[in-house]
Amino acid sequence: AWAQGLLSKSWADARLQGGTVDGRIAVAAPEHGPLQLAGRLNASGVKLETTDATIASDKLAGSFDFDYRIFDAPHPSLLTLEGTLHGGEFLAGSVYVSLPDTPIGLSVRGEHRDGAGWSLPHIAWTDGNALHVGGSAAFDDAANLRTLDLTLHSDDLSPLRDRYLSGLLGIAGLSDLTLTGALDAQVRVDGGEIHAFDFVPHHVDIVEPTDNRFAFHGLDGTLRFSRAAPIDSALQWHDGVLYGLEFGAASLPMRSDGGAIALTRAVSVPLLGGELRFDNMTLRLPADGKGADAV
Question: How many Cβ atoms sit within 10 Å of the Cβ of residue 221?
Fold first, then answer.
């Protein structure tokens, strides 16, 4: 009961449904100043779900130091959380995450004002060589994402499918897809829509082995998108496969402009002793309630 009460202070829609939480909590209620809750919590087998079932977790384990200071309006309440996760799984919308038993570092600083959602000016996620994430986020009072600004780095992409991407890849029919290589990326969301991104693969191999559907080997370069101003980028690969047909190296010069990414010139790909030519190719990202499309 005490754990649910503590959780509800910062996340009203979450409901604990199982597991154990223990630790020490110090409560300070000065006559002049915020109510302060601080301590260290150890969690094991935690199962929770939000009232709308959009977020759920099971078997989560970890240890966290926290400091939560509840101010009277108009001052924001402040939360600091530092700790490690040790296994478990959670679902957020269509994103399914299966955490490894090896420790994952988590650091969050947040603030909340009455009548507004949480703002997280500092987020850090450290999963060994697989994934480092740092940045900030903000949500409205209904917990909808308003802004997001993240920097990502991976020295080893191979664990990402099973840990972070299985839900999204399953929806796309790419459950067996494999990734190797390294990646740097930046993503910015504004008003709930993607505002900009940079993806920089470092000798990445992408292989969908089902029926030898497709493969790209030695993917390098940069893929950039911005709604603010035109920006150029280029991707290249060493070779690949499409339904068993091998193709050769190519470079794709692109420009982001007007909410879309398009080739800036025709591209020829070596195939079957000849060439496969792409005169035009455009990818338009979701915006104004419309989904992505490619032509």
Answer: 19
pLDDT in tens, 196-244: 999 999 999 999 998 889 999 999 999 999 998 999 999 999 999 999 9
Check residue 174 and report its DSSP letter: -
C-alpha dist (Å) from residue 214 to 109, 156, 247: 42, 21, 10
132: Cα separation from own chain's centroid:
11
Rounded Cα gap, residues 61 and 42, in angstroms? 8
> What pLDDT score does 31 carry?
83
User: Which CB contacts under 8 angstroms, 24+ apart, belong to 83-87?
Assistant: 85/60, 85/61, 86/61, 86/62, 87/59, 87/60, 87/61
Helix, strand and coil percent figures for the chain, each rounded to 5: 10, 65, 30
Closest CA to 3 of 34, 41, 38: 41
Find the angle CA(16)-CA(57)-CA(82) to the nearest 5 degrees.
85
Amino acid at 74: P
Distances (CA, A) of 237 to 78, 140, 158, 214: 47, 41, 18, 13
Rounded mean pLDDT, 53-71: 91
